[in-house]
Amino acid sequence: MGPQLKVVERTRTATMLCAASGNPDPEITWFKDFLPVDTSNNNGRIKQLRSGGTPIRGALQIEQSEESDQGKYECVATNSAGTRYSAPANLYVRGRNDVILVSSELVRRVPPRFSIPPTNHEIMPGGSVNITCVAVGSPMPYVKWMLGAEDLTPEDDMPIGRNVLELNDVRQSANYTCVAMSTLGVIEAIAQITVKALPKPPGTPVVTESTATSITLTWDSGNPEPVSYYIIQHKPKNSEEPFKEIDGVATTRYSVAGLSPYSDYEFRVVAVNNIGRGPPSEPVLTQTSEQAPSSAPRDVQARMLSSTTILVQWKEPEEPNGQIQGYRVYYTMDPTQHVNNWMKHNVADSQITTIGNLVPQKTYSVKVLAFTSIGDGPLSSDIQVITQTGVPGQPLNFKAEPESETSILLSWTPPRSDTIANYELVYKDGEHGEEQRITIEPGTSYRLQGLRPNSLYHFRLAARSPQGLGASTAEISARTMQSMEKQNGIITEYSIKYAAVDGEDDKPHEILGIPSDTTKYLLEQLEKWTEYQITVTAHTDVGPGPESLSVLIRTDEDVPSGPPRKVEVEAVNSTSVKVSWRSPVPNKQHGQIRGYQVHYVRMENGEPKGQPMLKDVMLADAQWEFDDTTEHGMYSRVLSHCYSVVSFQDMIISGLQPETSYSLTVTAYTTKGDGARSKPKLVSTTGAAILGIHFMRLLRNGDACGVVLPLSSDGNVNIWSVLHSILCAPVPGKPRLVINHTQMNTALIQWHPPVDTFGPLQGYRLKFGRKDMEPLTTLEFSEKEDHFTATDIHKGASYIFRLSARNKVGFGEEMVKEISVPEEVPTGFPQNLHSEGTTSTSVQLSWQPPVLAERNGIITKYTLLYRDINIPLLPMEQFIVPADTTMTLSGLKPDTTYDVKVRAHTSKGPGPYSPSVQFRTLPVDQAVFAKNFHVKAVMKTSVLLSWEIPENYNSAMPFKILYDDGKMVEEVDGRATQKLIVNLKPEKSYSFVLTNRGNSAGGLQHRVTAKTAPDVLRTKPAFIGKTNLDGMITVQLPEVPANENIK
After folding, report:
1. Which residues contact 428 (CB under 8 A, 6 or more apart)?
2. Can you give the residue ranges of the Ig-like domain (predicted)?
3. Overall number of domains in the chain
4. Beta carbons of 415 and 432 less than 8 angstroms apart
């Protein structure tokens, strides 16, 4: 028994009957308008009444009936044998005064509506799909499908209520329209069928920016459909090697780093969607910019032309990095001085030069560097030459190779000289062995025999002519082979132990089981730009022998993997901005930071406009960085188009546009290239205030839309009428918005026009960003665009997306959607770990959370790992819950150095540890000491020193101040906080050390330096005469010696 047509008054109870029998007993459920009836989500108003027996009864009871209950109901019986549907029956809900015609009775009429509207689908080329469309009403509507103006459903076979369109072998995208019609109206709904295919090749890339080690490309997508990401392929021009690929590029602009300076490259771009990768674009050829040479000139030689003139020659560097503009030759008789104090000789476009006016019978050291238009390269190793006529130069390419347990083969290239009588070889066993001298006949090699096994020897070689002995080579060393007699058996294997001396990974490593017939081994997965200590041990069946002498070696440089930190920008005026930053974290520098690049571009509506610009900040040798303490206010730069250097610290760049936004990023570079860029910082130049705000407020505060505004006296529309039309005209409704998060930390945003546009659409505005961050990013799109890929979507964060459509009146109501990205473990470590407030048994530690993009969720706790550096195998771990960024570590040993690092946790687990820092607890008798020791004032013959002491300092323990290289000592009362040091010499640098008397180890120390003022004015100014009638007085100033530098 199935349900019957029923009419019920609003708020009354309606009961739809159903009964079924079968074996086994069936389960009865109900459907309304082809959708299951949910009896659990209506506060018990709708319930199913079940009863046993045969047949099984399952009536549907609806209490407090309302218009939303009206529709077509079906009873469904299901058991293991199958499913059976009852005939449908309509339920009508009417008010007390409504009338409905049923059979011969009065019935209410309902226009058609979609109970199951068609949905959009994406399919592969040649795929199949079924599209379902269900409409209801009274009378029940006919339902048909259309493709454009073409009817897909025959007129004589048009179904009522439900129509399923079957599509097979679909080759192109199209919009299909479902039409529901009855005597009360016609409604339509559209289903978009998108055929996904491999993407087309992007447009030919365009080079928008070029540096010595990077190329910035932009390109057109070339695809009307959304692209998942792009692949950039590049290789050196005319190279036979395959293209290198950069995967997962989410935008149509990208900077390829790590390139070689002054080199030609070929680039092309490939688009990828969820079907696969398409064909590559047409290639573009370009050349990187010049850079200072990365290597020194090769094969530097020097020989005498006379007793006061030498001839120096060399070859071009292996890595010139550009067009060599010339060379600088440095020479000195005192090589212990800094090279800036050496004499310099410039050479233009030649690899040979002479240097004259030298002192006879002296030994000179010589170095050479090359330079390009960008700057100087590194200096060559120094060579020596003796200023004596006829004396040979240094032998070249001096090498030593062990041949056996008792012999070493020495080889060299003879110096350029007419006559070499013989060579003098000087060698010694070990660092402190006695030097031995032997004479060698002219040649290019010599086998030195009779040496001790497994011993390190040091060698120097000089050539002799009849006029005298030339300069010796730099000292080299080699070790003889191990004696087989000391193997004490057959070598079965080798083992290698190695540990980083200055890297983050301070744990010792050991490699066992190296075959006995192997004498070399490749150590892999080491840290970049890190010094390692390595030893080798031989094994017999009995066990391991002694370790070899350790070898120290440093891995090669690489581009920085971390961006500069704490990038700050601020507007200086309407045409200038200022940027400052700090160096990348030390373990991500991967080499000596040689300089920085500041990239900046004008922004409009969140998108870059115009050509990006670049400012290169090259550091001098003395400024190459190894730590993270460098604050680049020191390297602050103010951006403009017209550079004027204010001081070493600041650079003003004027000519930017007023009231304009700019995006700035900073990147550090080593000799290997530029590294990761900092996150873009937005800054706007200042300008005039926005006009019209006052008028807008007036309109909004009154009933402006209900009045008619008059024209101005000359008949033209005035500002009030313009604002009235803006505020009161209809704007578009909400667009449809779909957000899809990808696995590549991006979000694909797609949209469709709103139903009510009130005129042609002129574009869209998208605002999006993290819910916990302000402000949101704002982008505007044309009316033809329908998708956008948002990048840098952080894991473990919630994002909000607001989309509105615009017509000629303005932007309409926003469609708002949110997505939440699942958490992961942090990929970054806590920043800026440091210690403060150290006592003899405790220390206060502070740090900052990982950078936002690397947190990957909410930080739930931190793990602190610390250890006594003298007990490396017993680290201690402490959890910080809740996730505070400061803690006091207590229970420590006095006068002990500790190593500490910290890592962050999310709900998914811990991230990597931070680089370790070290601190030392105070000795017990020195647990309190002065702080903030500084120079307060400087005079010609005196310096005023000042410091602070804690409140609980023991005043019975006095201070000492040492200066003048420790020759002078001043004792200071423990309660004093300053001291005037007198009887100093004018214009002289002094170093002052403040110390407590402490223990025999010397106590704690603070050191400052100061330079006394010059003794320029030796008398006071004197007044001449009295004040005249104009209130003027004449002053006679003391004379200044003519040789003094006066600023």
Report:
1. 434, 435, 436, 457, 458
2. 1-92, 112-194
3. 9
4. no
How many C-beta atoms lie closer than 10 Å to residue 308's C-beta? 15
pTM over the 0.90 mark: no
Q: List the structure tokens of 50.
A: 């079940």
Q: Which of 896, 859, 898 is nearest to 879 (CA)?
A: 859
Q: Which of 234, 230, 268, 272 is nearest to 250 (CA)?
A: 230
Is the distance from CB of 303 to CB of 392 less than 8 angstroms? yes
Residues 751, 797, single domain; the answer is: yes
Nearest to 885 by CA among 867, 900, 868, 864: 864
The predicted structure's pLDDT at residue 402:
93
Residues written for the chain: 1047
282 pLDDT exceeds 60?
yes
- Pairing between β-strand 673-677 and β-strand 681-684 as defined by DSSP bridges: unpaired
Would you give the distance in Å from CA 156 to the centre of its chain? 66
Q: Are 216 and 174 within one domain?
A: no
Tens of pLDDT, residue by residue over 372-396, are 988 888 999 889 998 888 888 888 8
pLDDT band at 957, cuts 50/70/90? low
Of the candidates 353, 387, 421, which is a domain's last residue? 387
93 forms beta bridges with 8
Of the given ranges (418-427, 577-586, 646-655, 756-765), which has the lowest mean pLDDT?
A: 646-655
d(CA 359, CA 469): 17
**How confident is the model at residue 134, as a pLDDT?**
92
Cα 47 to Cα 60: distance, rounded to the nearest angstrom: 6
Tokens read off for 479: 């070790």
SS3 228: coil
Q: Are residues 382 and 450 in the same domain?
A: no
User: Residue 629 domain-assigned?
Assistant: no
Of the candidates 171, 172, 173, the residue with the CA atom closest to the CA atom of residue 126: 171
* 586: helix, strand or coil: helix
Of the listed ranges 228-237, 625-634, 670-679, 859-868, the least confidently predicted one is: 625-634
150 by DSSP, 3-state: which? strand
Residues 69, 1 share a domain = yes
For residues 387 and 383, give the distance between their C-alpha atoms in angstroms, rounded to a whole number.
13
In a domain, 940, yes or no: no
Cβ atoms 875, 866 nearer than 8 A: yes
Contact 16, 6 (CB under 8 A): yes
Q: Where does 619-778 have alpha helices with state H?
A: 693-701, 719-728
Cα separation, 955 vs 959, whole angstroms: 9
CA separation, residue 137 to residues 102, 535, 895 (Å): 14, 88, 88
With beta carbons less than 8 A apart as the criterion, state whether 618 and 635 touch: no
Q: How does residue 662 score in pLDDT terms, banded at 50, 70 and 90? A: confident
Cα gap 268→285, rounded to integer Å = 9
Question: Domain for residue 943, yes or no?
Answer: no
CATH of the domain at 121: 2.60.40.10
CB-based contacts of 1040: which residues, under 8 Å, 6+ apart?
1016, 1017, 1046
Q: How far apart are CA 532 and CA 552, in angstroms?
A: 6
Show Cβ contacts of residue 791 under 8 Å, excluding neighbours closer than 6 positions. 250, 251, 745, 746
In a shared domain, residues 302 and 409: no
Query: Which contiguous run of DSSP H or E holds residue 146?
Result: strand 142-147
State pLDDT tens for residues 706-746: 444 444 334 444 444 455 554 555 788 889 888 888 767 78
Which pair of tokens denotes residue 1038?
A: 């003391």
Query: Residue 566: is its pLDDT beyond 80?
Result: yes
pLDDT, one tens digit per residue, over 248-271 is 888 888 888 878 889 999 999 999
Q: Given a cut of 90, is residue 93 above it in pLDDT? A: no
Sheet containing 383-386: order of strands: 343-347, 326-332, 363-371, 383-386
Distance CA 512, CA 526 (A): 17
Residues 570, 678 within the same domain: yes
Of the candidates 287, 292, 274, 363, the one whose C-alpha atom is nearest the C-alpha of residue 328 is: 292
Residue-range definition of the domain harbouring residue 310: 297-387
